[in-house]
Amino acid sequence: MTCSCLRMLIVLCFAAVVALALGCGGGPAQGAEGGECYGNDTCNQGLECVAGVCVADPGDPELDAGIDEDTDSDEDAGSEQDADSEQDADSEQDADSEQDAEMDAGEEMVVSLEPALSFARVSDEPAPTFPEPLTLEIGQPSDEDQPVAIEVIGGDGLTVAEVVIPAGEVMVELLVTASVVGTYGIRASLGAETREAEVRVIAATAVPTGLTVEPDEVELAAGSSQTFTFTVDVPAPPGGLEGTIADTTGGLAPASVTIPEDQLSASFDYIAPDDPVEGTVTVSIVGTGVSVTAPVTVLPQATLIINEVDYINPGTDDREYVELYNVGPDELDLSDIVLLLINGANSESPVVYASISLAPAGGPAVIAPGGYLLVVPPTGVEVPAGVLRSEFNGQLNQLRDGPRDGIVLFDRGSGEVLDALAYRGRPTGSITFFDVEDEPIEFTFSETQTLPDDPMYNDRDSADGSVARIPNGLFTGAAADDFRFTTTLTPGTANPSSP
User: Fold this and answer.
1) Within the chain, how many helices (H) and strands (E) appear?
2) Reported pTM
């Protein structure tokens, strides 16, 4: 609204108020301010007749000042409001800019510089490192080529070619030139983010001085197989490294295996003989004098094995079972064989908390080749026709499900442990069993008879399932290779081919 319009509105309102007052009687004299106008529509000096009432001159400076002051206030308020709005907008824009900058920095930061250790040979030519090339990765591709700052720590014996990640890509292999043998640090920086790795420079003809083998000790069943991997301390030179293999157990293994050029390791399969024996497998690197030996214990060929265990049920533990399976070629007399249940709560002093006879009541005391035997509670688990059955000592909570608990198949007639399984970890202490002559037999679970406390192997109360040899009857002598948790329950029948 303009100042003149606003002034007129104020005057009219004032005149209306005065007229109302006059209508009520009394009031200012005619011609005076607030009084009636003279008949010729005039008023005393300095006044003006508006709507029949004498009022101050609408152009009065004091009135103008009031009006201007109000107008200025309104304008100031609007200006301040506009300024605040602009300031808020600027603040939001600044915040957005900062956030965008942080996002951009995060997206283009160095995510990885791997592997942590790689090798390079002394050479005048730039080349990738090995066995795996040293590779840099950023968070998100850029629209333009992205240079990355590289710093070499440890001297001038190693240089790195300029590193630029091409537009649209996130990874690049680093090329290095090595002149002095040693170990160097590589630091990659982009913005505030850095990553580091090491490069070990070796002579062009360097040969290994160290050798390891994994596993470094083996216990396996007769006729089963084991993969060995041997590793040198520096990568194989051009042409590779030959490793010869010597076996004293009478098993089967290749005469030699070659580590390829620029690689650190090679593997081979060993097959145990059919008879129990103790011996060694030795790997020697030709031309270096470096060798490593792994002790090997070949156990008797498996006969009756623990094939499946359901040691905990959802809700009430009233459907637990142990499935045994005869993988041997002959029928087996069960008369003196017992299933021993082990409490491993005290790892150093595990104890037998129950002993279950496997000779079925009123049934045959032998199990045929390929036959199954179920140890079950009196009710709750259906035993298929033709499958042998033995029962726990009660219905509920017959199998412990805590860490380091387990079960053992013990032949009291021969004093031999046919099979054993500790689950959720291994009890370290020994357990004393007694044969039919009451002679004590000391037994300790080995690592190869133990399942780790890991979801891959653990039975659970959240779903029906069991811990089973998969595929059915698999017996390598290493429980962690043979068993898996599965939700496919198969009491008295073949286990699934996969979990």
Assistant:
1) 3, 34
2) 0.58
